[in-house]
Design a protein that fits this description.
The protein is an alpha+beta fold. It contains two helices and four strands; from the N terminus they run ααββββ. A four-stranded antiparallel beta sheet has the order 1-2-3-4, with helices on one face. β3 and β4 form a beta hairpin. The longest helix is centred in the middle third of the chain and has 10 residues. The protein is globular and about 35 Å long.
Length: about 80
């Protein structure tokens, strides 16, 4: 049972981001800069479907997984490791 809870981050379901034409997406460089400016560290940044997704840490140093709208960079879904 304890092992299952350790892997809960990997079971995190995909976010349902709105689909926009790629030319309307915020550039990856701008997206990364804005996320970093919010106090996050980024260990991994990737495109997942119609979302930008990061794995990193928040200001408190807790691990996070966050899906962002690729056009507006609004968070769509997030998980913070406890």
């Amino acid at each position: 049972l304890g092992a299952a809870s350790m892997f809960s981050v990997h079971a995190f379901a995909k976010a349902d981001c709105k689909a926009y034409p790629k030319n309307e997406w915020m550039s990856e460089a701008d997206a990364k800069a804005k996320i970093l400016a919010q106090g996050y560290t980024i260990n991994k940044f990737k495109v997942d479907g119609n979302c930008y997704e990061i794995y990193g840490k928040n200001k408190e140093g807790k691990k996070v997984e966050i899906y962002y709208d690729a056009k507006t960079l609004e968070p769509v879904k997030s998980e913070i490791q406890k």
